[in-house]
# Entry
Amino acid sequence: MSTTTTGKATARPPREHDDVRWLTADEQRAWRAYRDGTARLLDVLAHELEEDSGLSLGEYEVLVRLSEAPQRTLRMSELAGELAHSRSRLTHTVRRMESAGLVERAPCLEDARGVNCTMTETGWRRLVDAAPSHVESVRRHLVDVLTPAQMQALGDAMAAVGAALQAGCAQAEAAAEASGR
# Structure
């Protein structure tokens, strides 16, 4: 942003960036509201979950995804894709969870290069114990704050963003593979 002689910020950025599609005032307000609301929501959800169950949001999400899978088992690559985490970040989280007895890793029988992650009975019990208070926290801080129409619009909007980003990642991976990287 540039400033006027009175020191006030102008809506027009410096000329060297004329090719940038700058956000309108309404878009900027919406972006900041989304960014700030999301950060605050995730902070409070993480704090309450950790306080109530000793699980991080990342650990909880791993357990949820495994609980929904056949035999409570997913390949690590599949789990990373479902959680939108990098493989290295997921590996770190799963290693910590494995040390706590919540999950086990084993080579994939169908593909020796793959690794499966399976929820243990201890992991299942932790998830069952943690879920009621976490769901109540999500309800109290998000679902009950919004109207049903707002909640639907939020879900639709984030599904569109997620799909666009996932498609972009798939295109980048295909391009990298085609170029031999």
